[in-house]
Amino acid sequence: MGNVKYESIQSDLKNSGINFYLVSQNKTWEIERDKKILWSPKLAKNGTKNIGYESMKKVRQGDLIFNVHHQTIYSVSQAVSRAKSCKKIDSDGFDDKNNWNSDGWEIALNMVEVSFPLKPHLGFFKNHYSKAFNKNGRLNQRYLSPLDNQEVQYLINQSTEIFETVRSFISRSQRVTVNYDGNPKEFIIDKKNFSQFKTEFEEGKSSAANIASHKDYYKIFENNQIVGEMGELIIFEYLHNEYPDAKIIGRSQNLDKEDGNDNLGYDIEIIFSNGKKTLIDVKTSTVKTGDFFVSSKEKEVARQVDNDPNISYLFYYLSELKTDYGKVYLSKISLTDLKLEPASYRASPVTNMNKKIINK
């Protein structure tokens, strides 16, 4: 069996950090397909853990899933988010016999249709039974299962449709690692955003080199709009993965092109299930650590909510944002953690500017 297809994307696949899963949707496939989701209960009906349901919690944003119905892979999907708590779908034909608990997990998907029957390949899966396939080469009776590297290689090499779809997904995927307090969290952002950032960053660096030293350039550039916008995008995705049950709202123009407002004093709003809120302003730097600027509006809003037990305000400070790899470091800072020093003043003329002063 040739491995040409897989080998052509092996390096990109490894760098992306994408994991693969197979979901068996015989009872629910039509509704889940139309809604572009995966849904499972959190626990079995008797209250015990279920391997297939537990796998839902392991899926990361950007991971790829083979959707199976009647022993045929009918689509390849990319997880848009981690699993979020979600009540059972209220729809005719979805668990009409009430076999599942209402409390469940939901994963949003970006789906691409393919067609790959598994029955002609029982021989391979019989000799390679795993978490997804049993010793007879058939699917195990569980909802979601991880696929190992050999299974992924086989499916990619056997189907041009699957190969092209996987290649398309990984070409658009950039794995980012945000390290907070020694605890790294990985997730996927759209690679076009990262590529655009890299292009604009390098162009700006070339221009700045004519007027500043390399050291001065970084001081100039850390407050550049390009760096700041990339930081906002990274934190926006980070929060979706960190708080899957919360509502994450982009408030800046960068995150909401239509209704965003850069004069609010914060970039992102989190609304938790208990009604409490956190307002976040994102600061981004290309160097390890350093000072950052706080606007009068940011300071005002942070102090306004200081005595409100239901609202908190934090600066999310990203450092070491580079163009050659997706690893950054995060600090979460409150206003009281900062020493504020006036760095500039607004100047307004108090005399008639048209009046000429003549020195005799």
Automatic annotation (TrEMBL):
Source domain of life: Bacteria
The organism of origin for this protein: Companilactobacillus versmoldensis DSM 14857 = KCTC 3814
Protein NO VEIN C-terminal domain residues: 232-319
A Pfam family matched in the record: NOV_C
Protein name, entry field: Protein NO VEIN C-terminal domain-containing protein
